[in-house]
Amino acid sequence: MSKKEEKINNLQTEFNRIQEENKDLDVSKYLAKKEDLPDLGEIQIYDYDSDLEESQNQANDVMESLVNLYLGDNPNIAHHDYVVRKMKEDAQVYADTIFLQRMTRKNLLTQMRQVDNGDTSARMHEVINQSFSQMRDNIKFSQTQKTELEKFYKEMRRDLGLNEMSETMEQKNIENKTEDTKEEGKILDSRSLNNMIDDIIKNKKD
User: In the chain, where are the structural domains located?
Assistant: First the structure.
């Protein structure tokens, strides 16, 4: 008999001996009971796809309103291919930022629930403090990113001369309203008034 076969036989013999000696053993005595386990709460499967979609929709709304704010008074520019593509790219980047914030918050809440369930080790508190720091950094980055986007479209408006164009149109509107007001509030002299009365009387006779 080879050494390999001998080793296999020995293991089989030992396994049979252990089974024979413990055939009356009640394994249930050594299993943890439900009441002995910590309350882990309801297990939920997180819907990451839904969170991604909501983040994208939120970013799209923000970017559309931003472009409309700075370029909405000139539809030709607001709907230009470059502006539309730029807006979509900016929305995607901003959506990723929103999603990152959500995931950091989710991670922090999970860690805090672990502490509530009894994991009060120094390491866990260190991890939570790191998550707080990460959340602060994410919020700061999000605000900085939004400010940079606003700055970009504001400068685009200025570079394209839309500010001057808007001021010119506004000035024309003011001038037109002034002329209309002057016409409506024009004071008639006695001759003009007599002519108007004569015209009215004449029209009545006719």
Answer: 48-159
